[in-house]
Amino acid sequence: MAGQNPFLESAPQESSKNQNENPRVRGQAAFLLGEIGDLRSIAALQLFSSFEDQFISEMSLIALTTLINSWTIEALRLKLKDPDPEIRSAAAIALNEKNAFDSEKSGNAPSGENAYQ
Questions:
Q1: Residue 76 and residue 59: Cα distance in Å, rounded?
Q2: Residues 53 and 104 in one domain
Q3: How many CA atoms lie within 13 A of 73 on its CB side?
Q4: Which helix (H) or strand (E) holds 55?
Q5: 16: closest CA among 57, 44, 54, 58?
Q6: Range(s) of the domain holding residue 60
Q7: pLDDT tens profile 35-70
Q8: Distance, first Cα to last Cα, the chain
Q9: Regarding predicted confidence, which is higher, 59 or 8?
Q10: Do 57 and 85 fall into the same domain?
């Protein structure tokens, strides 16, 4: 995430000028921004999610979810090493609930307590 990324910095301005140009490519680009995981893309993805084209909007929302989930999971994993036992416990509970939710959604049984440790 270090350094300048000209695409991320110009994305909101450029996208508003050319909103109807190649919606499939724009939607795929929005999705890939989520996969890259650079938090600086949040503003661009928020803008893309309000586009009239449904594909662009959906891909942007998926990207935002991916980006936020990966960031949140990493933050919770770091809290598993916190010196405060209550913080560690809360982080473990949150990660286990996320794991159970993901498993339920995919039809798999949860893989047990503390799956993220």
A1: 26
A2: no
A3: 15
A4: helix 54-79
A5: 44
A6: 1-72
A7: 888 878 888 888 988 888 899 999 998 888 888 787
A8: 25
A9: 59
A10: no
Whether residues 10 and 52 share a domain: the answer is yes
Average pLDDT over residues 90-117: 67
CA distance 96 to 109: 12
- Rounded Cα distance between 70 and 82, Å, is 19
Evaluate whether 80 touches 91 at the Cβ level (below 8 Å).
Answer: yes
**For residue 82, what is the DSSP state?**
-
Q: Which amino acid is at 79?
A: K
Segment 26-34 shows an average pLDDT of: 90
Residue 83 in this model has a pLDDT that exceeds 90:
yes
Q: What letter represents residue 59's amino acid? A: M
Does position 81 have pLDDT exceeding 90, yes or no? yes
CA-only gyration radius of the chain, Å:
18
Q: Are residues 51 and 84 in the same domain?
A: no
How far is Cα 26 from Cα 23, in angstroms, rounded to an integer? 5
- Measure the CA–CA gap between 50 and 44, rounded to whole angstroms: 10
